[in-house]
Amino acid sequence: MTFPLYPHGLFGTYAGLLVGTLVGVAFGFVLERAGFGRARNLAAQFYLTDLRVLKVMFSAIVTACVGMAFLAGIGVLDLALITVPETFLWPQLVGGLLLGAGFIVSGYCPGTGVVAVASGNLDAVAAIGGIMAGSLAFGFGYGPLESFYKSGAMGVVRIDRLLGVPISVVAAAVVAMAVGAFLGGEKLEAIFAPRQGELVPASPARVKVRVFSGFAVVAALALVALALPARHAVLAAKPEQRISAVALAKDLVASPQSWWVVDLRPEAVAEKGRLPGAIVVGPEEKGAAAAANLAATRKLVIYSQSDLAAPPEGVKRFAGEIYVLKGGYDAWKAEVLTAPRAEENPTAAQSADFKVRLALYARYTGAASTTGPARSEPRPAAPAAEPKKGGGC
User: Which CATH architecture has domain 241-335?
Assistant: First the structure.
């Protein structure tokens, strides 16, 4: 979700889009004022003569991380509604290296390139054109790269969950890391800028004190928010609910932000195949407790390899609605990841169900078309069964 304050009734859909647009314009304005619309300033970070990119972007990261931790702690912001892309370790590492190489060659990253285009810089037009051409080439060459593109799948990973610590602790650590990076960057500028015949960038002590003090105050408030009472009361004696693989697949397409999908299998098993967006917590009680601590603004669905008779005790502490995937991952493979078979003489209901299952199969497996298999299923079979009646239309 772009602006996750909807649960409080502060923003509707169109107001949220307007706010997002205004934030985007403001972000572009700040980048331009920071000098990010000129390739020379951006490339200087790679030569360690001007690390303004590190300072400005780290300031943005700290502001966002600490601000979210504090607002979540006082119950204003729901972190569960913020979209976090899935982690695919190896392709993302390679992609990061390629992005860095493109950055140093062109002098721009995609965001700063758009800012520079708006500023009228022709080199940025060439850089954005190269990004578009590279994206198009990747699209055409996706087939041979697909297995690598999907390798190293780790699901939705957040540092706080990975380390098992509150988000406020992570935010405080990011503040400390940012202060160290700022001071270390200035040391590097003082060493390398004179070697390149450049002036050492100005760094007023008063400004640094104000910035660092602001970071420290907000980080302290975020840590204090840990002591506040939980925002959701745990519900007692919730009825067990079960959902079929097809019903869940349809809902994940229509409203993916409505669900927490939790994989209770061992990590080694889950790496071989899992539901899209699933959080792998493992079968131990620690994993069940991690699932129970998810924000109750979404529904929780859990699954194992086969059918679960009941949710684990630890999961039952989840404050929201809890569902069990009927048949587990085996049912998901059989009902969603396997091409459906059409009935020979389908009723209207069976025909509609077949089309839904075929669409889901195409959606979750990347099948080329939903029309190809349908043409080959029931219709050609009827003439083949009565060859002597032949002829015409």
Answer: 3-Layer(aba) Sandwich (3.40)
